[in-house]
């Protein structure tokens, strides 16, 4: 009976983390390039009261065992890298990746960060940067007298400068992909960094070797489904209530045992 307290408590803790994860997904429903996370759980150790195959008589065996589970625990929060919807903005520096891949940006630490958010801007020197001022890698610099910017599906950045009729190439965007994108470490600010679990980045030209193509003038929206998250929240809440009911029931049973001598 006492075992039920700890088992149900582990279930309540797991569902609390599940609701925390759902809350973060809903909070980022309008975050460009955000990828929802899914909490995953696994059962804990079992107390084996009788192992399957134990002899019941000299010639017979128990076909199944007798075990009591000890609850559950959260084991991971997996990122779901499903493509989000595209939203047209008309901003020439807004880009989406149609398919697999990540934009690369240079972090202040000198590391390379990876993002699906294609909301880029120009700094005072004409470099293409994120909203936090992180430079696109490889760096792309737009001349100050550029009157139009064109970004091809293959990542080639061209501009038409004042007084010229022909477009001039000023840079090229490379994308990166990973053997295991779910192993990337989220850093906030729409950024991921590589880990040993994600594997080393594989960089290349957009549209080649399995990488997606670049579409100019769009941003990728979050892949969070509000309806799905609300359904998951209701399920998590009911599971939490069920586990709390187990604790109340176990408490009532223990109370009756304590009152047997009265």
Keywords, please?
single chain, 262 residues, alpha+beta, 2 domains, 3-stranded antiparallel beta sheet
**Count of helical stretches:** 2
Evaluate the radius of gyration: 27 Å
Mean pLDDT: 93
Identify low-pLDDT runs.
Answer: none
Order of helices and strands: HEEEEEEEEEEEEEEEEEEEH
Q: Strand order, biggest sheet?
A: 8-7-14-17
Structural shape: elongated
Task: Summarize the structure in words.
- Strand 9 (121-122) and strand 10 form a beta hairpin.
- This protein folds into two domains: 2-80 and 224-258, no CATH class; 86-220, no CATH class.
- By secondary structure, it is an alpha+beta fold.
- The strands form eight sheets. A four-stranded antiparallel β-sheet has the order 8-7-14-17, with no helix packed on it. A three-stranded antiparallel β-sheet has the order 11-12-13, with no helix packed on it. The chain has a two-stranded antiparallel sheet with strand order 1-4.
- It is 23% helix and 31% strand.
- The mean pLDDT is 93.
